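User: Design a sequence. Structure:
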């Protein structure tokens, strides 16, 4: 669940916080999160895939704020899904104390060419569910997470971005999601 080099006191604090957060429609993702002009983008994928790299490219080429590079909490509210920075950031140095409405989730795949496509139905569930931390120490933890996740995946688009770590990947994503 957490990398072996994580400080045990940090793990304890995360789990304590999450025990209360998940009961308030807040779920935890292994993800990076950026704020691009008031619109949140989450980059998801396994460790080493390039989540922080993509966030840094958006920062470099589009002046996006990197809120967190590794651990993101998402809260379901009446109006939006708010992505929150956390004091925990894994190997990434980014951990801003702020939030942004999440506009899209982006599943990263490394590739020699840049391409993007919107996922549908079960593809969304399959691609995103591996990036959620499920509080297995809570009897209803899985159920609470899945309820929020279901609402998220019904409301928000999920894209698969096959990409190189370059500005063209940023431009393609920006054009696809925001029409710019």
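Assistant: Done.
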């Amino acid at each position: 669940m957490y990398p072996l080099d994580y400080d045990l006191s940090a793990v304890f604090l995360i789990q304590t916080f999450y025990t209360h957060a998940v009961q308030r429609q807040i779920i935890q993702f292994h993800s990076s999160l950026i704020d691009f002009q008031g619109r949140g983008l989450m980059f998801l994928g396994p460790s080493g895939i390039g989540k922080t790299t993509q966030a840094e490219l958006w920062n470099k080429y589009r002046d996006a704020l990197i809120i967190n590079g590794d651990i993101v909490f998402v809260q379901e509210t009446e109006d939006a899904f708010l992505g929150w920075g956390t004091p925990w950031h894994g190997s990434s140095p980014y951990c801003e104390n702020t939030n942004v409405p999440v506009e899209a989730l982006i599943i990263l795949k490394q590739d020699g060419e840049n391409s993007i496509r919107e996922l549908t139905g079960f593809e969304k569930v399959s691609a995103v569910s591996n990036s959620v931390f499920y509080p297995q120490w809570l009897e209803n933890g899985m159920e609470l997470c899945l309820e929020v996740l279901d609402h998220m995946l019904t409301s928000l688009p999920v894209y698969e971005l096959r990409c190189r770590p370059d500005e063209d990947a940023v431009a393609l994503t920006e054009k696809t999601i925001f029409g710019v």
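The radius of gyration is 15 Å. The first strand starts at residue 26 and ends at 36.
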